[in-house]
Amino acid sequence: MTEHKLLIKICLDVIALLIVGFAWLALLLWAKPYERGYFQNDQSLSLPFKEEAISETLLAGLGFALLVITILIVEIIRNIKGKSVTDKTLCGTEIPGWVWESYVAIGIFTFGAACQQLLVTMTKYVIGRLRPHFFDLCQPSITIATRQGYVTEFSCAGAGGASKLKNMRLSFPSAHASFSMYCAVFFILYIQVNARWRGSKLLRHVAQFVVLLAAWYVGLSRVVDNMHHSSDVAVGFAVGAVTALITFAYLYKPKSVEPRRSWLTEPSTQPEFLPRPVLMTRNH
């Protein structure tokens, strides 16, 4: 790739990321969630309000830190072992191959995260599902209700503040669950393809399980904190996992990895494409 084409590629990448990021930010700043009504005897909206244990800022910081640090470490090790791409030249400056590979992986991860957040946020504003602590936070004063007890117009007498009263309508789906699962699945796929070490068969899988367990905990904490219904978390997990799979498979596009090795065999120099199913046969 020539230096001119490389610079154009970087500029287009940044523009694409800014477009998605601005659309997400516009929703947060100017959009209003759908004003859904409620049934007066709905027990699922009667839980007490609690401060969240894991804030959005903390979750975003941990998620990005995990992936960025992991990608940098893996690409540096791959470069030391001579498995990185050739160096690039940009504006007269030589860019090491591992830096370029890290830029690609981190950029694709960030773009996928932005798309995932945009999808979840748009769904929140369109659906407008009330959170489990709705009654406690809003303390609604009923204006119009149907014979079946469904309230269509009401005002909130609670002192939660405008931001909290707006946020109480953004229950479905869980953005925490979606983002945490997106990070976990992307992490699992990335080290599965790029971080192969013959010193241990299980170390990589332990790391994958720990990250998946952490994402699972984040989702469960949203139910414990009365911030989401269980179905909100379940859909959030699904959105995050599917987005990560699509981002990794169709944007990152891992071409090939080293073949699986046993503890006793010598490493092979022939690449093996993934995924490749293993069929077990039995002779009768």
UniProtKB/TrEMBL annotation:
The record's InterPro entries line, in alphabetical order, gives:
PAP-like, PAP2/HPO, PAP2/HPO_sf
Could you list the residue ranges forming a coiled coil in this record?
none
Q: Where in the cell is it found?
A: Membrane
Entries under Gene3D superfamilies matching the protein: Phosphatidic acid phosphatase type 2/haloperoxidase
GO CC terms in record:
plasma membrane
User: Which is a Pfam family this sequence falls into?
Assistant: PAP2
What topology does the record note for this protein and the membrane? Multi-pass membrane protein
Output the Gene Ontology terms for molecular function.
Answer: phosphatidate phosphatase activity
Q: Where would I find the Phosphatidic acid phosphatase type 2/haloperoxidase domain in this sequence?
A: 106-248
Spans through the membrane: 7-31, 58-77, 98-119, 170-190, 202-221, 233-252
PANTHER family given for it? FI04477P-RELATED, LIPID PHOSPHATE PHOSPHATASE
Q: Give the similarity note.
A: Belongs to the PA-phosphatase related phosphoesterase family.
Q: What is this protein called?
A: Phosphatidic acid phosphatase type 2/haloperoxidase domain-containing protein
What organism is recorded for this protein?
Pieris macdunnoughi
Q: What is the lineage of its organism?
A: Eukaryota, Metazoa, Ecdysozoa, Arthropoda, Hexapoda
